[in-house]
Amino acid sequence: MAEKTQMLSIVTPQRVVYGDEVRFVSARGVDGDLGVLPEHTPLITGLKPGVVRIQKDGKWSSYAVAGGFLEVRDSRVVILANAAESPDLIDVKRAEAAKQRAEERLASKAADIDLMRAKAALMRALARLDAAQSK
Ligand code: ATP
Fold first, then answer.
1. Residue 12 backbone phi and psi in degrees, to 5
2. Are 55 and 24 in contact (CB under 8 A)?
3. Where does residue 2 fall: left (phi above 0), alpha (psi -120 to 50 degrees), or beta otherwise?
4. Residue 24 vs residues 21, 39, 98: alpha-carbon distances, Å
5. What is the pLDDT of residues 2-51, one digit of tens each?
6. Ligand 1 binding pocket mutation candidate from 52, 91, 119 (most atoms within 8 A of CB)
7. Which domains does the chain have, with CATH numbers?
8. pTM over 0.85
9. Closest atom, ligand 1, to C-alpha of 125
10. Ligand 1 atom closest to Cα of residue 90
């Protein structure tokens, strides 16, 4: 018997990045990592910048997601993200430069550093580098 699936959409302000029936989705929720199988109870959670992993037809894929929200309802999963990229669209040099910039900012301890912003930028860069590895 075919495994149950659920519809996953990953949507950014610019476009629909992903839309397909999948078996499993994992993401970094603000309250902890979560994994969603079909018929999961309804939920809404904020997402940290991180990697969303998807299992479809026994194969895994990864997307870098720059924070946002995840909603589960009626066996549909919607990820609303500020930005999301598949591994083939990730510019690794750009992500490495962003990582370095964020690390330098965090190390400088200058009074005018926006710590949360630098940490978020570092998490986005690390998520992109992580997702790019699974190309
Ligand atoms: P940077 O400092 O390099 O701009 P950022 O984390 O501030 O990185 P975001 O604000 O998350 O960038 O994203 C802005 C836009 O640029 C989004 O459309 C996102 O998909 C794209 N983007 C950012 N970094 C990369 C990357 N390394 N590869 C591909 N697209 C990227």
1. -115, 170
2. yes
3. beta
4. 9, 11, 30
5. 789 999 999 999 999 999 999 999 999 999 999 999 999 999 999 999 99
6. 91
7. 6-85 (2.60.15.10), 91-133 (1.20.5.440)
8. yes
9. 6
10. 28
